């Protein structure tokens, strides 16, 4: 059943400070809306709750890409089109630009935001595996102050995050200390574009003389949240790139992942494909 839009209230304060003040002062729960590519689907399906929305669209305090000598800082309201067109992001964080390029249609990329993709907290979202592999940090703001946490700690359980009711996701920080790392990303879906992932894997790794010195693996659709595959990483740490290592990693990922059966795929398929993707990455090394 479609929603009755007259039952919804949209507030557009026009500045970040004003938005945070509304969130702090109101006893009601407001749902922030930026591009609206996820929320408008829920609205059309009649399942968008609660019914008070507060607009973040085009707030300059949230839509930016700042480059420093040590990091790239991306505002939460930065669109996927902004990300995939940015020269530093494309050059240094290529798999983030790749993920941005397959997030929905071009129209979706012009509206959809990185922060919205994160806060929506879908286990199948496109950008989280990349951010996990890059070991990103997220900065949260409210009238009470600012706090920054590792992104790997942001998702607590299915659709539940570490974001308080009066907080907003402000920005995502990526360290530029990735010289010498090899990156990999694969998304398996029904189509090449505009498809929710059955499985997605992102990897950032450094090797030396045939030994894996450092590796981070981010995954979608393998647990109830976007997840770092810590046990799988540990099975690869300090290991040679060899067939015996591939056998270890397949066992680790099958024991660590907890996928589900749904209309897009089966749990068994997801686990096996995830192991295949990591094996594919190792073979490229």
Automatic annotation (TrEMBL):
Pfam families attached to this UniProt entry: CO_deh_flav_C, FAD_binding_5
Organism ancestry: Bacteria, Pseudomonadati, Acidobacteriota, Terriglobia, Terriglobales
Keywords: FAD, Flavoprotein, Oxidoreductase
GO molecular function: FAD binding; oxidoreductase activity
InterPro entries named in the record: CO_DH_flav_C, CO_DH_flav_C_dom_sf, Diverse_Substr_Oxidored, FAD-bd_PCMH, FAD-bd_PCMH-like_sf, FAD-bd_PCMH_sub1, FAD-bd_PCMH_sub2, Mopterin_DH_FAD-bd
Entry keyword annotation includes Mitochondrion: no
Protein's UniProt name: FAD binding domain-containing protein
Domain FAD-binding PCMH-type: 1-179
Keyword Flavoprotein attached: yes
